[in-house]
Write a structure and sequence with these properties.
It is built from 14 helices and 16 strands. By secondary structure, it is α/β, with parallel strands linked by helices. The protein has a domain of 70 residues. The protein is globular, with a radius of gyration of 21 Å. The N terminus is likely disordered. Bound molecules: iron/sulfur cluster (SF4) (2 copies). One iron/sulfur cluster binds next to helix 13 and helix 14.
Length: 427
């Protein structure tokens, strides 16, 4: 496998938004919907689920999913399971989806309050896999964990998205408390936080080292953070976790405070909604709320041909139903007016080299895309650095032929991973 220099020379200077402290305390509350839909991991097969329609559930209740193993879901409302169905998501992956008719008023389940309120790694693993902000405690807290450093992200990974920045600016007290819980429930010896420069003084109140990150895209992607802060390069095919560094969003840290101090597992997600004029607004919605309910509450009209994107403009993914729910990892939802959509195309690459100049990982994108277009995923990995890609989306952004390069790359990585898994012994 080839390894090329990590930083390209021609990365466009796209800036993350920095929110004003005066407007940071405004958040819109989205009403509780009549029905929530909770998406499960695509690794779980719907036929193996032990949940069934008609089951009654309470808010914050831990719902065991399978006869064997520890897989579970946290119900985000009180009500009755209406349906278990399948949702086809990005790259054609099938997600089991549990829909719950909400009774209207929350009755809180008390298992966590009675048995899980001691902050330790075991309770993090047992109760926090569906927490707002989507922390991965399997990686951060398990006995096998090799994570020795945790970086709290007080910025968001995509442009126009301000969710974690909002949390740092409005929840500094709970963030500080959450960091103390984080120390108890993980095995890391070092924790620090990254924020935009204007939040550095505020973040210093948390008591952990603060790194001010120049808010220029893609400086908040994990591999770039590691390179800029510690000078460590993540080698192709490896993750930051492989190198002992774990990441967690500021929102997830605040969720720890809410859970341990109140005895309730948080079920509301903060997200940035970017409207058709590209104006972001911060909202709080129950996890599982269909995006159409979010739009309705914000008086955002949708019309045929508009595009709904989960995530930000650089790396977000289009969804094809307004029933798509807010999930623990939904930091942003964007709606694009049909008149403003720049559609991808099946144009041929004209070898202009813009993508190569823009790529911060030094990937020969112009060559890579040729193989990916033809489904040659293993060759793409072995000959043209597919696995060095850090998933920033800049190649798509600059492509004058409007080739959806980023999505070819994501598909290529996914298919390459499937081939490698199938080749593993006993796979
Ligand atoms: S998404 Fe494109 S520009 Fe970004 S690292 Fe991957 S190949 Fe390079
Ligand atoms: S920017 Fe687009 S057209 Fe230009 S070399 Fe890259 S893939 Fe080809």
């Amino acid at each position: 496998m080839i390894k090329r220099p990590f930083f390209g020379l021609g990365t466009p200077r796209l800036k993350y938004p920095v929110i004003d402290i005066d407007i940071a305390d405004t958040i819109r509350e989205i009403p509780l919907p009549q029905k929530v839909t909770l998406l499960l991991s695509p690794d779980i097969r719907i036929e193996d689920l032990i949940l069934k329609a008609g089951d009654s559930v309470k808010t914050g209740q831990k719902l065991k999913l399978l006869d064997d193993g520890n897989a579970y879901l946290i119900s985000t409302v009180t009500g009755t399971i209406a349906e278990i169905s399948e949702y086809t998501g990005y790259l054609g992956r099938i997600y089991p989806a549990v829909s719950i008719d909400a009774a209207g008023e929350d009755q809180w389940d008390d298992e966590f309050n009675e048995t899980g309120k001691t902050p330790n790694p075991e309770n993090a693993l047992a109760f926090f896999n569906y927490l707002p902000g989507n922390p991965d405690f399997t990686t951060l807290s398990s006995v096998q964990s090799a994570i020795n450093t945790i970086i709290i992200n007080g910025l968001d990974s995509d442009l126009l998205v301000t969710t974690n920045q909002f949390v740092v600016k409005t929840e500094t007290g709970r963030l500080t408390e959450g960091i103390e819980y984080l120390k108890k429930i993980t095995r890391a010896s070092r924790i620090f936080i990254i924020v935009p420069p204007d939040s550095a003084a505020l973040a210093e109140k948390t008591g952990v080292p603060v790194y001010a990150v120049n808010p220029v895209y893609p400086n908040t992607l994990p591999q770039i953070i590691m390179k800029n802060i510690s000078g460590t390069e993540v080698l192709p095919g490896n993750s930051c976790e492989d190198m002992g560094v774990g990441f967690i969003n500021a929102e997830a840290v605040v969720s720890l405070t809410m859970a341990f101090s109140e005895g309730k597992i948080p079920v509301d997600k903060i997200l940035t909604v970017i409207n058709k004029d590209y104006v972001p607004e911060t909202v709080r919605a129950r996890i599982g709320t269909p995006v159409k309910d979010v739009f309705k509450a914000l008086d955002i009209d949708t019309a045929h041909g508009d595009q709904i994107i989960f995530g930000g403009p650089m790396t977000g993914t289009a969804v094809y139903s307004e029933d798509m729910p807010v999930s623990p990892n939904t930091d942003a939802v964007m709606i694009q007016d049909s008149a403003r959509i720049t559609l991808g195309s099946d144009n041929q690459c004209i070898n202009c080299g813009e993508c190569v100049r823009a790529c911060p990982a030094g990937v020969p994108v112009n060559m890579l895309v040729r193989l990916l277009e033809n489904g040659l995923y293993e060759e793409a990995a072995e000959q043209y650095d597919l696995l060095s890609c850090i998933e920033c989306g800049l190649c798509s952004y600059v492509c004058i032929a409007r080739i959806p390069v980023f999505h070819y790359i994501m598909l290529g990585k996914y298919e390459f991973g499937r081939v490698k898994s199938a080749e593993e012994p006993n796979a």
